[in-house]
Amino acid sequence: MRPQPVPPLDALDRQLIDMLAVDAHVSNRKLAAELGVTEGTVRGRIKRLQQDGLIAFTAITGMDLGKQSRLAFINVQADVDRVREVAAMIADVAEVNAVLITMGQFNITAMCLIDELEALVDIASDRILAMEGVNRVETSIAVSTVKYNTRMAKIVKPIVVDDGD
Predict the structure, then answer these.
(1) CB–CB of 99/108 below 8 Å?
(2) Strand, helix or coil at 68?
(3) What confidence tens digit (pLDDT) does each residue in 12-50 have?
């Protein structure tokens, strides 16, 4: 499966994205006034950017919201010819928030928030290490956050919906 091409963004799209990244609550009217366009233009651009998957509006919790939650990194050494396949399997693990293909001794890094070490053992050792094509995993846990830019990376706990079953 090939990734879909990213639709071209013009200067107005980029300005709009930059302004929304600073304050997603700003009104379309204010955006239009600051950009020198009509409110309908802003509304249409935002709708298109959302439909194209280039922007989304979401609430981002601070890293300190759950004092017990810790950011965990799972470095994975996978067979070179199966890296993308293994990365896709890891991405299907609900508790994993981000999967990155990397260079070096480990070729995949997964990130997740954990409350207890047992959860990390379950994710890293019991599930990821058991995947076909995975040779080795190594974990690390963030003990202190010096800098975290939510505009660059959103790390949140997955929302579990209890449907009563």
Answers:
(1) yes
(2) coil
(3) 998 998 888 888 889 999 999 999 999 999 999 999 988
Question: Which residues is 127 bridged to in the sheet?
Answer: none
Give the range of the structural domain holding residue 37, as residue numbers without chain letter.
Answer: 11-51
Give the pairing of strands 108-114 and 96-101: antiparallel
CATH at residue 21: 1.10.10.10
SS3 42: helix
Q: Which residues pair with 114 in a beta bridge?
A: 70
* Total residue length of the chain: 165
The answer to whether the predicted template modeling score (pTM) of the entire model surpasses 0.70 is no
CB contact set of 95 (below 8 Å; sequence gap of 6+): 112, 114, 119, 123, 158
Q: Can you tell me the distance from the alpha carbon of 46 to that of 54, in angstroms, rounded to the nearest whole number?
A: 10
User: For residue 79, which amino acid is it?
Assistant: D
